[in-house]
Amino acid sequence: MENGSEKWNFQGNEELNASAISVRGVYNMLMESINNNEDKKPVIPLCRVDPTDNSLFRTTLDATDAVANALQSFNFNSYPPSSGGLYDARRAIADYLSSDLPNKLSPENVFVTAGGTQAIDIILPVIARPGANILLPRPGYPQYESRANCCLLEVRYFDLLPEREWEVDLDSLEALADENSVAMVLISPSNPCGNVFTYQHLKRVAETARKLGIFVISDEVYAHVAFGSNPFVSMGVFSSIVPVMTIGSLSKRWLVPGWRIGWFATCDPHGIFQKTGIVTNIINYLGVNSDAPTFLQAAIPQILERTKDDFFSKNLNIMREAANIFYDGCKEIPCLRCPHKPEGAMVAMVEINFSQLEGIIDDVDFCTKLAKEESVLLLPGVTLGLKNWLRISLAVDSSDLEDGLSRIKAFSHRHAKMP
């Protein structure tokens, strides 16, 4: 690479640049649109999913006490073990996950990470090899594509079907796979769709994955954040059919995304991950990776074992009310269509009807102009692989959600096509 008369032997990774669109990047871009507006209104952040934006959401004292106890003991100021985390934390997570599974997990099945995102950042490089590909849902969580691009793992997309409550299009999944496919990703409860997959559908997904010879990465960061008719079912229930890696976190269920505590677990009663060398690769990769803070790992057993059920039920009631407010309010906005009332996670996907709008060309344009005119932040669907849709966070106070919907409605009327 030449610069004037000088020659340099380095340049930016083009694969990384191709995946530069992120939730944080879009959030910052939209905030710039607001900050450049002198007549800006109070910001309503429906773009990112941060439950701490809702004043009603506060983590339990059982969690904060656990962290304080770990800190004040002075026993956890050292580096943690690099082989997967503190043993007691891994044991507690294994017990916690096993309550949803037919086969009990051991501490050796669990690896503690700095949030669910680091779990992705570990799993994908471990399975990457020349020519390999991974099957991702569309729409989906952009971190998977970003990490895959970084480790030169080819990405192929299968569709989620909005008209069928965002079920996996199993025909498109089968059509994508070949002998170089290594894994598929499933997110349930779903970010960004807000659906919760049924037991029957998850079983069909497991059977399809086994037929294709791939394993399932099951993103369960929103595990048990299910407030509709479908209960949460872990993909690990079907690990006797296909090997599964589940990803989990304290972030959303305990309302502490800033703590960055997560994990992933191998659900594999037949030992396939051991036989194929995947577990050895994980342990080796952990040796060159960063660790979650030791004192937070030490707090995990007390958090998981002492948190009371009424803490969770109260939060689910708040989310259920938010989903009802959103779904009813969305019907009042002619240019938006929500195909299915959200039943899980803290999000919903809506489609933009451009035949109703004048002077707006796509979802990014919609979000940019909405931010500038109304100080409401939404995430354009192109960030999630589904152009001309929007993802809306429900993790805000109900009054802010109602105000946000009112402003979106005013915006849509302002930009409506004349009859």
What would your notes on this structure say?
The chain has helices at 14-18, 23-35, 61-72, 87-98, 115-127, 142-150, 170-176, 199-212, 272-275, 278-286, 294-306, 309-330, 363-374, 398-414; strands at residues 2-3, 6-7, 44-45, 110-113, 133-138, 154-161, 167-168, 181-187, 215-219, 244-249, 262-267, 336-337, 347-352, 376-377, 379-380, 389-393. The protein is built from 14 helices and 16 strands. 47% of the residues are buried. Strand 6 and strand 7 (167-168) form a beta hairpin. The protein has 419 residues and is of the alpha/beta class. The mean pLDDT is 94. An eight-stranded mixed sheet has the order 4-11-10-9-8-5-6-7. A four-stranded antiparallel sheet has the order 12-13-16-15. The termini are far apart.
Kindly list the characteristics that best describe this protein.
alpha/beta, eight-stranded mixed beta sheet, globular, four-stranded antiparallel beta sheet, 419 residues, 16 strands
* Percent of residues in β-strands: 15-25%
Q: What is the count of DSSP helices, taking H or I runs of 4+ residues?
A: 14
DSSP E strands, number: 16
Gyration radius from CA atoms, angstroms:
22 Å
- First-to-last CA distance: 56 Å
Structural classification: alpha/beta
Strand order of the largest sheet: 4-11-10-9-8-5-6-7
Rough outline: globular
How much is the average pLDDT?
94
Low-confidence stretches: none
What is the succession of H and E elements? Answer: EEHHEHHEHEHEEHEHEEEHHHHEEHEEEH
Most strands sheet: 8 strands, mixed
Share of residues in helices: 25-40%
